[in-house]
């Protein structure tokens, strides 16, 4: 009787343990499913923490190349510069020198996928690209992937670190690169040869990669940030970059005072919709108007036609040119207009003064400044400006003396600062 009772007790005990274990396993499994569903339903807050081993990152993952000559798996050479913080995308621009002084005829760069914020520990080493300088003034890019396949290739080559968009602003969008190709299927090896000028230039090597064993059903990833378009929180920008950690990708986390979808820091025409460009000249309509007196104010809004509206010496709200204050315009000329790389500024005044020359773009960024502290009254002063880095832009030249300030609007005759 005692033995039977003990058997029943042991049976009840093990049954209880089994049920508790089953309940624990089931609860843990359900909890994992709940966590996964919560992650998917709140992807706007988790875009920057997607695992590098997930389907989303292994299939259609964006990849960039960088120089790493010492074979340190987590190091980038000084010749390669991360896009961040200048841009809301990760990736690298690299300067390569093929001159006789270096003796280099080729460089081998590592390619990493999914290295958000240029953090190599987050990414995957998918292979390399060898860049070779040829005697016929061309360079050849040989992609060689290991365990991964390449479905898109984008390459930039130029004398400046970054390409420019239609408005002349620097960009890292792969669609603006020198070479783009997405019609070669999925390959482990890919080659492209591009013409170049000189022996020293910047390159950006980009690709869209996926693991060789990636299952069928890959998704569209238009902005190449490793996030499917259907799940993209910030289309057109890299969802993995969230520098302030507030859950909103940096590309969509900015001040947009005129609500045109462009961050104030990138706004070409503040106060107006940058997307409206009726004549297709790269200048938004809001900043594309007649300005006969070159004071930066459209003729339709000009308070004092023929004079600089920005000069109001006595602060009474009336520009000096239409005020009772004596105003005698002096000779100030900027030529040629349109200019090509070089601009001449000529001036003459009938008084002793310093002469300060400044050049601004439409965003108000100062591109050039020169001061003549030794100007002699009655002479003709001349300053030559090298604006080759600002080709394809509408600019403003401001000249300041001890008595007056003048401004002129100028534009480049070239929309492409380099030839490749």
Account of the 3D structure:
- This protein has 420 residues and is mostly beta strands.
- Strands 1, 2, 3, 4, 5, 6, 7, 8, 9 and 10 form a 10-stranded antiparallel beta sheet that branches. A 4-stranded antiparallel beta sheet has the order 14-13-16-17, with no helix packed on it.
- Helix content is 11%, strand content 30%.
- It folds into 2 domains: 55-252, no CATH class; 299-411, Sandwich (Immunoglobulin-like).
Number of domains: 2
For the report, how would you describe the main beta sheet? 10 strands, antiparallel
- The beta-strand count equals 17
H and E order: HHHEEEEEEEEEEEEEEEEE
Number of separate helices: 3
Rg calculated over all Cα atoms:
30 Å
Oligomer: single chain
| Percent strand | 25-35%
Mean pLDDT: 76
* Amino- and carboxy-terminal Cα gap: 97 Å
Helix content: 10-25%
Global structural class: mainly beta
| Low-confidence spans | 1-58, 325-329, 415-420
Shape: elongated
């Amino acid at each position: 009787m005692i033995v039977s009772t003990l058997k029943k007790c042991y049976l009840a005990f093990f049954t209880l343990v089994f049920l508790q274990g089953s309940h624990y396993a089931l609860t843990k499994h359900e909890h994992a499913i709940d966590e996964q569903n919560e992650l998917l339903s709140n992807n706007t807050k988790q875009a920057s923490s997607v695992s590098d081993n997930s389907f989303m990152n292994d299939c259609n993952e964006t990849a960039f190349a960088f120089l790493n000559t010492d074979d340190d798996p987590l190091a980038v050479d000084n010749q390669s510069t991360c896009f961040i913080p200048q841009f809301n995308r990760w990736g690298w621009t690299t300067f390569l020198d093929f001159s006789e002084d270096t003796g280099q005829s080729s460089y081998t760069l590592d390619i990493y996928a999914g290295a958000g914020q240029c953090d190599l520990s987050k990414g995957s080493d998918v292979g390399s690209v060898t860049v070779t300088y040829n005697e016929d003034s061309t360079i050849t890019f040989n992609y060689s992937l290991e365990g991964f396949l390449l479905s898109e290739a984008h390459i930039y080559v130029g004398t400046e670190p970054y390409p420019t968009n239609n408005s002349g602003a620097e960009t890292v969008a792969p669609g603006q690169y020198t070479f783009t190709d997405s019609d070669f299927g999925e390959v482990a090896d890919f080659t492209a040869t591009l013409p170049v000028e000189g022996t020293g230039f910047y390159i950006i090597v980009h690709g869209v990669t996926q693991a060789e064993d990636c299952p069928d059903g890959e998704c569209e990833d238009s902005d190449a940030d490793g996030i499917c378009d259907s799940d993209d929180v910030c289309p057109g920008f890299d969802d993995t970059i969230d520098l302030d950690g507030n859950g909103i990708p940096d590309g969509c986390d900015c001040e947009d005072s005129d609500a045109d979808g462009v961050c104030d820091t990138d706004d070409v025409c503040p106060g107006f919709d940058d997307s409206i460009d009726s004549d297709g000249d790269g200048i938004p309509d809001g900043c594309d108007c007649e300005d006969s007196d070159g004071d930066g104010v459209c003729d339709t809004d000009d308070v004092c036609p023929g004079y600089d509206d920005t000069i109001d010496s006595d602060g009474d709200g009336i520009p000096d040119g239409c005020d009772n204050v004596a105003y005698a315009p002096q000779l100030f000329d900027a030529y040629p207009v349109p200019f090509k790389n070089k601009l001449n500024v000529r001036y003459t005044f009938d008084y002793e003064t310093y002469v300060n020359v400044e050049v601004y773009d439409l965003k108000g960024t100062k591109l050039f400044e020169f001061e003549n502290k030794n100007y002699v009254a009655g002479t003709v002063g001349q300053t030559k400006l090298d604006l080759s880095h600002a080709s394809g832009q509408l600019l403003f030249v401001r000249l300041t003396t001890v008595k007056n300030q003048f401004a002129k609007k100028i534009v480049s005759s070239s929309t492409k600062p380099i030839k490749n």
